[in-house]
Amino acid sequence: MVDKYEDPFVKISHMIGGDEYLKVSRSLLKSEDATDEEIASSTGLRINMVRKVLYDLFGKGLITGIRVKDERKGWFVYRWRSRRDEVENFIENQKKKVLERIQQRLDYENSSEFYHCGNHDCNRVTFEDALDLFFKCPSCGKVLNLKNNDKIKKHFNKKVDHLKKDIRI
């Protein structure tokens, strides 16, 4: 379980992947430049799970890996380190992605007319699809009528406005 006073790096790691990510991120904070074997040993996780978590966090830019030669074994290993300074940038980028998706959905809602039969189990369809279906619901066969989507548009507009205020642009 994540403590409210936990380091933001640990919190975001937990949000990304759950308990395994929580254990790995805590381990990374305790010992900088740890190998995947050392992290597996300190967390009790299997080595392949640790590597999966490390590669994911690395791909998201939240950790960095340095390749060094292990003098005892003679092969190369990675030493991993958290990039706590990148947490804010990661969060901002995720907010921007969410904003972009919501804006696309709002644009779709604004540019389309939707038709629905009134049955809660059935999906609404666009005008083009309703026309192809001769204004008969493809699920239940009832007549499709114009569906007002002002509530949905208002909801997405609020979300877009909120995110734009929240994001540092």
From TrEMBL:
Domain of life: Archaea
Gene Ontology biological process terms from the UniProt entry: regulation of DNA-templated transcription; transcription initiation at RNA polymerase II promoter
Ranges where the HTH TFE/IIEalpha-type domain occurs: 5-88
SMART domains on file: TFIIE
Database matches in Gene3D superfamilies: Winged helix-like DNA-binding domain superfamily/Winged helix DNA-binding domain
The keyword DNA-binding belongs to this UniProt entry's keyword annotation: yes
GO molecular function: DNA binding; translation initiation factor activity
A Pfam family per the record: TFIIE_alpha
InterPro entries the record matches: TF_E_archaea, TFE, TFIIE/TFIIEa_HTH, TFIIE_asu, TFIIEa/SarR/Rpc3_HTH_dom, WH-like_DNA-bd_sf, WH_DNA-bd_sf
Keywords: DNA-binding, Initiation factor, Protein biosynthesis, Transcription, Transcription regulation
Function comment: Transcription factor that plays a role in the activation of archaeal genes transcribed by RNA polymerase. Facilitates transcription initiation by enhancing TATA-box recognition by TATA-box-binding protein (Tbp), and transcription factor B (Tfb) and RNA polymerase recruitment. Not absolutely required for transcription in vitro, but particularly important in cases where Tbp or Tfb function is not optimal. It dynamically alters the nucleic acid-binding properties of RNA polymerases by stabilizing the initiation complex and destabilizing elongation complexes.
Subunit structure: Monomer. Interaction with RNA polymerase subunits RpoF and RpoE is necessary for Tfe stimulatory transcription activity. Able to interact with Tbp and RNA polymerase in the absence of DNA promoter. Interacts both with the preinitiation and elongation complexes.
Comment block on domains: The winged helix domain is involved in binding to DNA in the preinitiation complex.
The family this protein is said to belong to: Belongs to the TFE family.
PANTHER family (alphabetical): GENERAL TRANSCRIPTION FACTOR IIE SUBUNIT 1 (PTHR13097:SF7), TRANSCRIPTION INITIATION FACTOR IIE, ALPHA SUBUNIT (PTHR13097)
Protein name as it appears in the record: Transcription factor E
Organism: uncultured marine thaumarchaeote KM3_24_H04
Gene designation: GTF2E1
